[in-house]
Write a structure and sequence with these properties.
Blueprint (H helix, E strand, L loop, with lengths): L8 E5 L2 H13 L5 E6 L15 E4 L4 H5 L3 E4 L8 H8 L3 E3 L1 H8 L4 E5 L4 H14 L4 E5 L5 H4 L6 E5 L2 H5 L8 E4 L14 H9 L7 E5 L13 E5 L6 E6 L2 E6 L2 E5 L8 H16 L4 H10 L8 E6 L2 E5 L6 H8 L8 E6 L10 H5 L4 E6 L13 E3 L3 H9 L7 E4 L12 H15 L10
Parallel strand pairs: 1-2, 1-4, 2-3, 4-5, 6-8, 6-9, 7-8, 9-10, 10-11, 16-20, 17-18, 17-20, 18-19
Antiparallel strand pairs: 12-13, 13-14, 15-16
Length: 448
């Protein structure tokens, strides 16, 4: 099945943003669909937005609805291994996700990005580059807007972030460019602790892709299926890469220098790789490379993800509050270039993690650790230059009296925020507010 032809009875499993977008999409088709929704939550989000013509079963499964459906549309958070969905699969009922429905309807070019880390940044970055190229762009999927809702605007192109969950139920999506950025352990509860299953789901992004973009520094991202064109990105002068010109490193495309990496506004070595992946995808849309360079010079990133919060008096204050685990903090630190001292804020709710892996990355850096929160003590042994504080605010007050021109202040906690904040967003917002409040104290340190 690759269209809604012959379909009348549709059961949507899971409400929320995705489920509502599916219902709205079906109602826009001017077809006499019989639409039902199942959500095992007692009071699912979006319940009050459902039209009266759509029946809702909440708080439990309703297997009879599933077994009598022509089509089941499952939200990405619902595992296909769920017993009720398995019964439907065995009965021959087709199960798809919202991205498959999107694939059946979209008529404009689409590029998509998946990976364990960085996919939101690359998706957003490609979107900004496409806009700067003069295109009307829809950016969404697993980030921002639901894919189906974007079809209403009939954009020139669509940029989708796709999770492994979304890819599991997608098989007809034709992509101008498909990028698989990297692979690390994540969602192992969904994949029974089998990294291979997670990887196989990610590889599905290359189905029907005209151009595959893979990370040559992470071999598993190479497409496991035939693709018309394959390009790569990475830290060598090949395809989309880097080259040393004198004392400066430059982004290159097929050997041609494009711009110095030092001009990229995003912080961290991983964001050089993200910039290269974004450029490769932009080229599949025939975008404007010079406009893309302008974007790279001013784009400071998504909130709380290596976001440049303040850049005044020669000091950069970077909010990476989204780094709620060791892998995320490692990504922020690897290849980090700081003219002066790195003032690193770490700590919070460690969730039982082992932080020793950070030691090797911290060792060559001129770093001062500011450890705070419930598990702050666990970071003290990572560096001989460590200070302990109860709260992040106390730590930042200390930093404000020490920073000098050329220094970098980085919040990349490697911990969840639940011990002192409702979520990582609130933690990041407090960091930004304090950075704006304390930035003026840099001049008191008489660095010039």
């Amino acid at each position: 099945m690759n269209s809604l032809d012959g379909v009348r009875s549709v059961v949507v499993v899971g409400l929320g943003m995705t489920g509502l977008s599916v219902v709205r999409h079906l109602l826009r088709q001017d077809r006499d669909f019989d639409i039902k929704v199942i959500d095992t939550r007692e009071n699912p989000p979006g319940k009050d937005q459902l039209p009266s013509s759509v029946l809702l079963c909440s708080g439990q499964w309703e297997d009879s609805w599933l077994l009598n459906a022509d089509l089941i549309v499952a939200s990405p958070g619902i595992a296909l291994s769920s017993p009720s969905l398995q019964k439907a699969i065995q009965a021959g009922i087709t199960i798809v996700g919202d991205i498959e429905l999107f694939a059946w309807s979209v008529t404009k070019p689409v590029v998509a990005i998946t990976g364990s880390n960085g996919k939101s940044t690359v998706t957003s970055l490609v979107g900004e580059m496409a806009k700067a190229s003069g295109l009307s762009v829809g950016v969404g999927g697993n980030i921002g807007f639901a894919a189906l809702d974007m079809l209403v605007n009939d954009h020139d192109c669509y940029i989708l972030e796709l999770s492994s969950f979304q890819l599991e139920t997608t098989q007809s999506l034709i992509l101008k460019g498909a990028a698989y950025l990297n692979l690390s352990e994540d969602h192992m509860d969904r994949y029974d602790d089998q990294l291979a299953l997670y990887h196989q789901a990610k590889q599905r992004i290359f189905l029907n892709a005209e151009c595959a973009v893979f990370n040559r520094n992470d071999d598993v991202t190479f497409p496991m299926m035939p693709v018309n064109e394959v390009v790569s990105f990475g830290f060598s002068n090949d395809s989309y890469g880097v080259v040393q010109k004198g004392i400066a490193e430059w982004l290159t495309i097929h050997g041609q220098p494009l711009m110095p990496t030092s001009e990229i506004a995003l912080v961290g070595r991983h964001n050089v790789a993200n910039a290269l992946a974004a450029l490769a995808l932009l080229d599949t849309l025939n975008g404007d490379r010079l406009a893309a360079c302008d974007v790279l010079r001013c784009y400071t990133g998504l909130d709380h993800r290596c976001q440049l919060a303040v850049n005044e008096y020669g000091v950069r204050w970077v909010n990476d509050s989204k780094a709620t685990n060791v892998a995320s903090t490692l990504a922020a630190l690897k290849g980090l270039h700081v003219a002066g001292c790195l003032h690193l804020l770490v700590g919070g709710d460690g969730k039982g993690a082992d932080f020793s892996e950070l030691s090797e990355v911290l060792a060559p850096l001129n770093v001062q650790l500011y450890c705070f929160g419930r598990d702050g003590d666990q970071f003290m042994a990572l560096s001989s230059n460590s200070c302990r504080f109860n709260t992040m605010e106390e730590a930042m007050q200390c930093i404000a009296g020490r920073v000098l021109e050329g220094d970098l202040v980085l919040l990349s906690p490697a911990c969840a925020s639940w011990d002192q904040f409702p979520n990582f967003m609130v933690r990041g917002e407090q960091f930004v507010n304090l950075a704006q409040q304390f930035q003026h104290r840099v001049t008191e340190n008489k660095t010039w």
